[in-house]
Amino acid sequence: MATQLQTFAEQASTHQYLAAFFYIFATIGVLLGVVAVICIDAGLVKRENIIDTIVQKVLAAFIAGVAFMFFGYAIWNLQYYQAFGVPDALGVAVKDWGLFGFNLLHYAQNIDPKAVAEGETFQIFSIFFFCFSGLTAILIQGAGLERLKAAACYITSAVVGAVVVPVAAYLTYGSASPLTNSGLHDFVGAYCLYMVVGTWAVVLAWRLGPRLGGAPLPGHFSLLSIGVLLLLIAIPMFVVGCGFLVPDVGYFGPTMATSGLGIVFTNVFMSFGGGALSGGLIAYRTHKPGYILLGPVAGYVACSALFDIAMPWQALVLSLFGPFILLGGERLLLALGIDEPKVAPLALGPSIFSVLAAGVIGAGVPQGGFFGLKEGAYVFQHATVSLGMQAFGVVVIVGLTAIAALVVTLLLEKTIGIRVDHAHEVSGLDQSFWHVTEQPAAASVPMKAAHEAA
Q: pLDDT band at 99, cuts 50/70/90?
């Protein structure tokens, strides 16, 4: 290994910095997604809960991100250490990629490229996961809007960042992950992000019970609209960062499936378009404009596993189903008495549809392994996509997530409690915890007087 004073020119090449900035761009996209979700949820709650919703989500995101950085990135990287046959793979991965590991204590140009070929990119990618952990935590928190205790939220976020995201990503995300190397296919994180979020959201909302008076209409439709539009900007930014850029060769998905940057980018917008069309139809049939906003997002999630292996026309067709799956999920949870009208219906059903669709249209596509490996269990593109493996992945992730969510939530419920006091929920969380009360608009008094006079 290199000492801190050694410099390796390969780590400071033009290509290295261009790739690094590409992944910085994608990482900022994930952060923008975090901001967008905060705006969306702030627009969905009662006016007297907006401040508490925002501050709780911001802190939860950073708690999850920091928790991930201690050992989470090392756990995800474990798959590559196993692929290359490193003895004591987990221990070495922690020594290299834990928060106090060698590769996060040295500048990239001082790291031997024989150990880490693209030091800048791998260091930046740790923050890609940092932001994704935060996004996962606040999406889960969205299932407890206006009634989830802050302490329960923060503890859950820490567990999600430290354990849930790393383990789910290790199992399903990356070309050498155990399931991917056996033929499971994903691109954005349909398994380790959206399926995890959707499953945990159902468990959390079930244990919390419904909000007093039921789910309200959006308190700030304009804030909701801004959040969704920001999310539509963020999604293409971070989606392109999910693949591998290989100079003079091409672009590969995270499973090592051969793909193309232009097709992936086009597919994202086709998914927006199909989702918008179906969402618009549902909105006018139900007289609920929110479906026009959430339609493109549902279309995107319905294609999230296959952007790298689908053609644009296929992404367009598949995305048409997203909003209808969203609507079906909402009605199913309503029938079950579970107050969760957004996160679970938007994440769980469409993500399951996406991975199963990937198993159909991508059947037989070669993937898995890693560049340069020509023998052993991790030979480059030795595995093939199959519907059976996609379905098996659904069972594994939904099952493990449901168990983890139930254990964590029940422990919190039996100890510190998970729901705010009845009095606080009635008076509003902004007033109860931040001593902030909503002020009437300046023009409201004279307008009321003029109305009475008339």
A: very high
* C-alpha R_g of the chain: 23
> Per residue in 219-234, pLDDT tens?
688 899 999 999 999 9
Query: 242: which DSSP letter?
Result: G
Q: Average pLDDT over the chain, rounded to whole? A: 93
Q: What is the pLDDT of residue 217?
A: 64
Please indicate, yes or no, if residue 3 is contained in any of the structural domains: no
The answer as to whether 1 is a domain residue is: no
DSSP 330-396: HHHHHHTT---SSHHHHHHHHHHHHHHHHHHHTTT-EE-S-TT--SSTT-TT-EE--HHHHHHHHHH
17-38, pLDDT tens digit by residue?
Answer: 999 999 999 999 999 999 999 9
Report the b/e string of 152-184 with b at 16+ CB within 10 A. Answer: bbbbbbbbbbbbbbbbbbbbbbbbbbebbbebb
- Beta-strand ranges (E) seen in 241-323 are 244-246, 250-252, 258-259
Task: Kindly give the pairing relationship between strand 383-384 and strand 366-367.
Answer: antiparallel
3 state DSSP class of 252: strand
Give the residues across from 244 on adjacent strands.
252
Number of alpha carbons in the 13 Å side-chain half-sphere of residue 40: 24
Q: Flag whether 234 is in a domain.
A: yes
8 Å CB contact between 6 and 114: no
Place of tokens 């950073």: 62
Please report which confidence band the pLDDT of residue 451 belongs to, taking 50, 70 and 90 as the band edges.
Answer: very low
Residue 213 lies inside a defined structural domain of this protein: yes
How confident is the model at residue 251, as a pLDDT?
A: 95
Domain that includes residue 32, residue range: 9-420
The count of domains in the chain is 1
The confidence score (pLDDT) of residue 221 equals: 87
CA count, 13 A, side-chain hemisphere, 413: 13
pLDDT digits (tens, 9 = 90+) for 340-374: 988 999 999 999 999 999 999 999 999 999 988 88
- Cβ neighbors of 433 (< 8 A, separation 6 or more) are 52, 150, 424
**Residue 123: CATH number of its domain:** 1.10.3430.10
Contact predicate 48/430, CB 8 Å: yes
